[in-house]
Amino acid sequence: MRAIVAEPFGGPETLRLVDRPTPAAGAGELLVRVRATALNRADLLQRMGKYPPPQGVTDILGLEMAGIVEAVGAGVDGWRVGDRVCALLPGGGYAEYAVIPAGMAMAIPEPLSFEEAAAIPEAFLTAYLNLWRLGGLQPGHRVLVHAAASGVGTAAIQLVREAGAASYATAGTAAKLEAALSLGAAAAWNYRDGSFRDWLLERTNGAGVDVALDFVGAPYFADHLATLAVDGRLVVIGTLGGAAIPGGFSLGTLLARRLHIIGTTLRSRPVADKISLTQDFAAFALPRFADGRLRPIVDAVFPFEEAAEAHRRMESNVNIGKIVLRV
Fold first, then answer.
1. Considering the entire predicted model, what is its pTM?
2. Which end of the chain is more exposed for a tag (fewer CB within 10 A), N or C?
């Protein structure tokens, strides 16, 4: 089968189309003919040698895919050859075939194309995990969503809306702010205009937010502590702005307002945990994708052979929603 790897590590030009053995479905697994996959920031980091795959995971890039079941392993019930599925992957999405645990497969709702379905797993499962399981999201909560026009950001805004909560979005262009508002954000702030602290406290009448989804890290840490409500939760998804907090911080703030600081990754979680997460998410979200209450936001679709151009688009930071490769 054809697959894409980074040889050697470096810029988009290092992506190579190679031949690899087609995998086989073992017991409890599905072999899927991949029709589309989607880009994630982790792909760019892996390409640069800064985010190696977990031990035992293929060096083929790609953390999600959508396609057609090609073969069903022993002991699998509920899936048949020809079924349309999408799934989260630990790696291997930039390929013509992928093997997945059957429990991690999600049926693609009929209205969605393969390209749209490929934009669901990583972004929506990340948002679902961090909002509900880690963030304790409840109806009426207020949620701060950074990188609001990213895949995770556009997913989080919609999930917050469907939970009966309110999201407050930040992004860096007028077009991205408008996209966030169109998806249901209560208000939006351009981070190029400065700190979100005063704006957010004003918008929440001084109460702050119950959950903050943080991709930035150290530069926003003080402002997050200042804008979290009592019992608020800061869920640290990434550290794009740096991880070291200069000068430290006072634990007294955490004690006084009973704050929670939670670090999270999805890729390294045990398979059983990912299966449980997938099934909970599917029960909540797939009916909403089917009737249009939720929708994957696709920025652009590139042919498989143009993966380097797709990476360049993500690096330019102009995308609103997911960038997809058609395999």
1. 0.96
2. N
